[in-house]
Amino acid sequence: MYPLIAAASGSSVLVARALEFFTFKYDFARDALIASILVGALCGVVGVFLVLRGLSLLGDAAGHATLPGLAVAFILTGGLAAPALLLGALTSAFLASVTVGVLSRGARSRPDASIGIVLSVFFGAGTVLLTYIQRTATTSYAGLDSMLLGNVAGISSGQLLSIVVAAIVLIGGVALTYRHLLVSTFDSVFAASIGVRTRLIHYALLATLSVTIVVSVQAVGVVLVSAMLITPASAALFLSSRLERVLAFAGLIGAVSGALGAFVSYLGEGVATGPAIVLAASSFFLVCMIFGPRNGLARRWFNQRSRSTRQEA
Amino acid sequence: MSPHELFIEPWTIGAWMWRGTLAASLAAVPCAVLGVFLYLRRLSLIADALTHVALPGIVAVFLMTGSMEPLPMLLGAAAVGALASYAIENLASRDGVRSDAAIGIVFTALFAVGVILLSTSVQNAHIDTQCVLFGDVLGISDESLLLLGVVAPLVCLCVALGWRWLGLVSFDPGLAVNLGLPVAFVHYALMGGVSVATVASFEAIGAILAIAFIIVPAATAHILADRLHVMVGIAVAHALTSVLVGMYTAVWFDLSASGCIVCVGGALYAAAFLFAPRHGVMTTALRRSARRRVASRISRVA
Amino acid sequence: MSDVNPPALSVRDLTVSYDSEPVLEGVSFTVGTGRLVGVVGPNGAGKSTMIKAIVGTLPVDSGDVEVLGERGKKALRKITYVPQRGSVDWDFPVTVLDVVNQGRYGHLGLLGRMTADDRRVVADAISKVGLQDLARRQIGELSGGQQQRVFLARALAQRGDVYLMDEPFVGVDAATESAIVEVLRELRDSGRTVLVVHHDLATAPEYFDSILLLNKELIAFGDTHDVFTRDHLQHAYGGRLAIFEDGGFATLA
């Protein structure tokens, strides 16, 4: 009944299970581990740009919005074929992020409300489609359920491949176009004045975001994928004042959180991977917020103290 | 299918259509009313966070008391909601954390805790993962219906009593401070109201769709209305229309009721966004192109 | 003659509107090379709008911009635009050096690497504004005046032919203001043309060779002493103008 606690109570058991998990003793565990690490790293890197552009919660909307796409793909193909599901999720996630932009530009609209509207209405549509599938499906739809909160153990080789490809292409793409991403994120007006195609970059980033979310949902789930975009990036911002390093730290924090979360959900049967990974990332955030060299609480407190002692002297 | 079969019969087969519609309306109306003020104060996404953290609140109370008594549940969820909104504001006011990121960090962490506790240590028919995500309008329990019956009128009454304060604080917090209004109290009362309304409607609409019940009516009303009381009226009308049409759709096609209600609400919003008489996107575009045509004709003449 | 030596900047019939409400109507002017021009006018006169329209970040209703005889993309490459400081996120994880490096990005294209030449240009620009010692600092750690100098250094690193600056003196201490003016004069003396949006009537005659007086339309443009007349200013500012006995001007709040 309490698998987590039971597992944790015998520390030797824990070590043994950690060994069998991290040394690839079982194939499914190896796949799960690789997938979670790559998803964490990818989300971390992409998330930095999202957070810096003030689009943190756009990831939340796009994440929830994959649900109707997944459901439509399932209905059309009648199964859990990875390419169809990816394409469906991708389409609806991209559509959602574009819709947020369109709604935010209308008269009398508020950008924050636009995100909430798109998130909930897309998710509502997904809910409706899920009940339709539950009623009519002849094949198993259990795989679809696991995408809500993530179940990395159930990852297929096709999904793993798409994660690997996406991670290589997108992280490589970020590295190659790093300068343009930096300048258009930092100062878009200036970027446009030196001929950087800021609109193109914006939409490329939305597409990157959609791909990232779509390959991540099997591991972390549509509901919590936004946390993996926001939390490691925000933690990394406490660690350095140079963007290159922030990106590296965010990727690292994401990857380690992915590994830890996959392990925890491997230990405790019934613990969805998404919440476990997110909780690991949130713990890292807390640590970085307290001890981070840039704006960290401990450093601030120390600075304040040394300032007041100097004033006294 | 005759109109009679379509429109009347669902109400005659058992009580579930009555119960479902009642539950959905009682959930939707207070959410829509509070939503207007949240929307105007640009707190839409805080509301998103508060609806999510209702889950850890409910689970925590269940683990401590072992029961689903309504009063402790409301208090527990309100406490976690207050904690979350304090944490968000505290994080957002620091250098180094962006305010929108702060929202995302806090509520996802708490929601993750809620889901993990739910899946490892809670065994209760009324809160499982499915219900958390989608709610269950048609299968609403007596306790939940009763809770909604108490909370919904109470929330509306509080809004009516605090009408002038809420309006001024939403419109111009600076002036409200100058006039000596208890701005912080009004703010936290609003947050508390959202927490209470979300918990009461939790079984009916779940944690994620609740945000649609809060923001979408207000956003629709804002496009159409120029005065606060009209805006609240339109928001309530939007909520009730969505509930009714959504319930019918759900029954006719055997689909998720909460999902259908949200979809109808979204469609109404889209219609207002595009075709509202003054601020609709299509209507302004048409007006502008008409004006351009006139202008170019004038310049050609000149 | 004009074919051999095209003007630095030539604007013809520039009209811009927001939501079909005109904010700038039929503005035309031509500036030669090596000029330091102040763009002056009351609030809402469309000064920033004009600059943004010239650099192409705002859609225009009509108008034609030519820079050293070039149009379109080729023209934009010769312009260096320094936007107003307010829009910058000071928490952003970049150092002074990172920001000034951005001045070279336009020359590098998408995939080019920074060469030793680029680095020298950047180092020159940083030392010209006196920030050598702060180059590794994150930009949020600087004072307001230093921050403004960072963006001036970035503009210098761009090595443009025509500089358009939007209110570079806002929120800046006196030392920085005179340092900026010094740099602007150096730019002019090296044959560049500089347009500066400026709202302080008291200092305008001292800083600029020419004045472009704007209030939705072009009121006057020419040498400072020709433009700064009572009639022109009253035309531009209406009742918001105070005229002092010593011949100075100031706007009323």
Overview in brief:
The complex is a heterotrimer of chains A (313), B (302) and C (253). Helix content of chain B is 82%, strand content 0%. With 302 residues, chain B is mostly helical.
Describe the structure.
With 313 residues, chain A is mainly α. Chain A has helices at 3-9, 11-22, 27-52, 56-77, 82-105, 111-136, 142-149, 157-176, 178-186, 188-193, 198-220, 225-236, 243-267, 273-291, 297-312. Chain A has 15 helices and no strands. With 302 residues, chain B is mainly α. Chain B has one domain (3-301): ABC transporter involved in vitamin B12 uptake, BtuC. Chain B has 15 helices and no strands. Chain B has helices at 3-12, 16-40, 44-65, 70-92, 99-121, 129-134, 142-161, 163-171, 173-178, 183-200, 202-205, 210-224, 228-253, 257-275, 281-301. Chain B starts with a helix and ends with a helix. Chain C has a domain at 9-86 and 161-251: 3-Layer(aba) Sandwich (Rossmann fold). Chain C has helices at 47-54, 72-78, 96-108, 116-128, 144-158, 174-189, 204-207, 224-227, 230-237, and strands at 9-18, 21-31, 36-40, 62-67, 79-82, 162-166, 193-197, 210-215, 217-223, 241-243, 249-251. In chain C, the strands form 3 sheets. Chain C has a 6-stranded mixed β-sheet with strand order 5-6-7-3-8-9, with helices on both faces. Chain C has a 3-stranded antiparallel β-sheet with strand order 2-1-4, with helices on one face. A two-stranded antiparallel sheet of chain C has the order 10-11. In chain C, helix 3 (96-108) crosses helix 4 (116-128). Classes of the chains: A mainly alpha (313), B mainly alpha (302), C alpha/beta (253). The interface between A and B is large, with 66 and 60 residues.
What brief labels describe this structure?
heterotrimer; A: 313 residues; ABC transporter involved in vitamin B12 uptake, BtuC; 81% helix; 0% strand; C: 253 residues; alpha/beta; Rossmann fold; 6-stranded mixed sheet; 3-stranded antiparallel sheet; 35% helix
CATH class of chain B: Mainly Alpha
Radius of gyration of chain B: 21 Å
- Structural class of chain B, please? mainly alpha
By CATH, the architecture of chain B is named: Orthogonal Bundle
Low-confidence stretches of chain B: none
Please report the distance between the alpha carbons of the first and last residues of chain B.
63 Å
Number of helices of chain B: 15
Largest sheet of chain C: 6 strands, mixed
Mean pLDDT score of chain C, rounded?
Answer: 84
The number of domains of chain B is: 1
**SSE order of chain B:** HHHHHHHHHHHHHHH
Q: What coarse outline of chain B follows from CA principal-axis ratios?
A: globular
How many β-strand stretches of chain B? 0
Helical content class of chain C = 25-40%
**CATH superfamily label of chain B:** ABC transporter involved in vitamin B12 uptake, BtuC
The neighbouring-strand order within the major sheet of chain C is 5-6-7-3-8-9
Q: Give the amount of beta strand of chain B, in percent.
A: under 5%
* Average pLDDT, all residues of chain B: 86
Give the low-pLDDT segments of chain C.
Answer: none
Task: Write down the oligomeric state.
Answer: heterotrimer
